[in-house]
Design a protein that fits this description.
By secondary structure, the chain is α/β, with parallel strands linked by helices. It contains 19 helices and 13 strands.
C-alpha cells in the first residue's frame, strides 16, 4: 500500500508527556502497517537526540527521518503572524527545511499516505498532494484558545484572535483531508458542529494507556518526601503548560485549605515560576522532573485532576486509574473518558465539592481502594492501546474522497 509520511510537531519519543504519548503509540502502530518516514520538530538538542532510541524502538520500520530543533521565538512568530494574517501556532512551527524534506519524499513516489499529527503540521502537506491525507488534530486547539480568551486578562484579545484564525485553518484542513481524527468523540462532535463540513470524514481515535507500565505493582518505591501519617494528594503533568499551572494554583488556593493536614504534591517537569512559588507553602511540594512518576502515583492517597481548561483526553487521569489510584477529577478533565463517575472515579467541580470528595476518600480507605480497583478494571476493559488503534488500518486503507471523485 506504499509508505507513510508521519508529520509531528514534537519528536514522538520518549512518550513522557501527553502529546508524545499519543504520537509515539500511533507512530509505532503505523510502523506495523508499512514503512514510515518521519518529519518532526524537537524542543532542543537533547530532545532531538532521542532519534536513535526512537529508531531502535521502531524495530526497522522507520525509514528516512528529519528532526529539526525548533528555534522560532514567540515574539518573532507573533509579529510574523500579524503581518501575514496567520495564527501564531503556524508561524511558530514553520520551516523551509522541513518543507523541502517533505517535497523530496513526496516526489520520490513511494509515499502513499501523509499522516499529520497536530494541526500546525498540516501546513507542510502540499495543497495539491495526491497522497491520502490523514489529519490527526488530537484536540481542537482553537477551542482551547477560545477558553483562554473567555478568561479575560491582558492577553484575552490575542487569544481570541488565535482562536478565530486557528479555527479557520482547522476547518480548511479538515475540508481537504481524507480523514480528520480527534482524541475523543466529544472533541470530534464539537468540531463537526462548529465546522459544518457536510460529507467530511471526522471521527474519534481515542487514546489508550500502557497497562503494563502503569500497573499497581510496577513501582513500589514511595517518595522519600512523603511524611509519615500525612495524607498525600498528587497532581501530575507538564508544569509549564498553562492549563496545568492554572489547575494547581486554583487547587492550592481554593481546595487544599478545606482538606486539613494533607500534603499536595505537584509532580512534573518544567514548573513555571508561579508553580515553583506554590512550593514555598507549608503543605505543598513541587518536585520538578522525577525519575519515575509511577512512584508518586503509587504513594498517592488521592490523585486529583482539577483542570478548569481541558481539551481531549487527560492522560494523567488514565495513568492514575491504571495504577488503581482513587481519582477526583473536574468535569473538564473527565470529559471524553469512558468511565462511570462514582464507580471508577469521582467527578467534582467546585472547591467545596472536590474537597468533600477528597475528605471522603481519605476517611474511608475501603472506599478509596474499591474505587482504585474499579478504575484499573475499567482501563483493562477499554483502554488497551492495540484496541484503541485498531481502526488505523482501515483509515490508512481508505480510498479517500479524491480517488472517488
Amino acid at each position: 500500500m506504499g509508505d507513510i509520511l508521519y508529520l509531528a510537531h514534537r519528536i514522538p519519543y520518549p512518550p513522557d508527556r501527553g502529546d508524545k504519548i499519543r504520537s509515539w503509540h500511533v507512530l509505532k502502530h503505523l510502523g506495523g502497517l508499512a514503512r514510515v518516514h518521519l518529519a518532526c520538530f524537537a524542543d532542543d538538542a537533547a530532545d532531538a537526540a532521542h532519534l536513535a532510541a526512537l529508531r531502535e524502538a521502531m524495530g526497522g520500520s522507520l525509514g528516512e527521518a528529519h528532526v529539526e530543533v525548533r528555534r522560532a521565538g514567540k515574539a518573532l512568530a507573533g509579529a510574523r503572524a500579524l503581518l501575514e494574517g496567520k495564527p501564531v501556532s503556524l508561524t511558530l512551527f514553520d520551516s523551509a527545511a522541513l518543507r523541502a524534506f517533505v517535497a523530496r519524499l513526496l516526489a520520490g513516489g513511494e509515499v502513499a499516505t501523509i499522516f499529520a499529527y497536530s494541526g500546525q503540521m498540516a501546513q507542510f502537506v502540499p495543497a495539491h498532494a495526491t497522497q491520502r491525507f490523514v489529519m490527526d488534530f488530537g484536540d481542537m486547539d482553537s477551542a482551547k484558545f477560545a477558553s483562554y480568551g473567555e478568561q479575560g486578562g491582558p492577553l484575552a484579545a490575542i487569544h481570541r484572535r488565535e482562536a478565530e484564525k486557528l479555527f479557520a485553518f482547522e476547518k480548511a484542513t479538515a475540508a481537504r483531508a481524507d480523514t480528520s481524527l480527534f482524541v475523543s468523540e466529544a472533541e470530534a462532535a464539537l468540531f463537526r458542529r462548529k465546522a459544518g463540513l457536510a460529507g467530511a470524514d471526522i471521527r474519534a481515535l481515542q487514546n489508550g494507556v500502557d497497562l503494563e507500565f502503569y500497573h499497581p505493582g510496577a513501582a513500589a518505591d514511595v517518595p522519600r518526601r512523603k511524611p509519615e501519617n500525612a495524607p498525600l494528594i498528587v497532581f501530575t503533568g507538564q508544569m509549564d503548560y498553562a492549563p496545568n499551572a492554572d489547575a494547581v494554583a486554583w487547587f492550592a488556593d481554593e481546595v487544599l485549605p478545606l482538606v486539613p493536614d494533607a500534603r499536595f504534591a505537584i509532580v512534573g517537569r518544567k514548573p513555571s515560576q508561579a508553580v515553583r512559588r506554590l512550593g514555598e507553602r507549608e503543605r505543598v511540594v513541587v518536585t520538578g522532573a522525577v525519575p519515575d512518576i509511577r512512584s508518586w502515583l503509587a504513594a498517592a492517597d488521592v490523585v486529583v485532576a482539577p483542570l478548569r481548561i481541558a481539551r481531549g483526553i487527560q492522560n494523567k487521569v488514565l495513568e492514575a486509574m491504571a495504577m488503581a489510584r482513587p481519582v477526583v477529577a473536574s468535569a473538564a478533565a473527565f470529559e471524553g473518558i469512558e468511565a462511570e463517575p462514582g464507580r471508577d472515579l469521582l467527578v467534582a467541580d467546585t472547591a467545596q465539592a472536590q474537597a468533600e470528595a477528597i475528605r471522603t476518600l481519605l476517611a474511608d480507605s475501603g472506599r478509596a481502594e474499591a474505587l482504585g480497583r474499579a478504575a484499573r478494571r475499567r482501563m483493562e476493559e477499554a483502554y488497551r492501546w492495540d484496541a484503541r488503534l485498531a481502526p488505523l488500518a482501515g483509515i490508512i486503507g481508505l480510498a479517500g474522497r479524491r480517488a472517488a471523485a
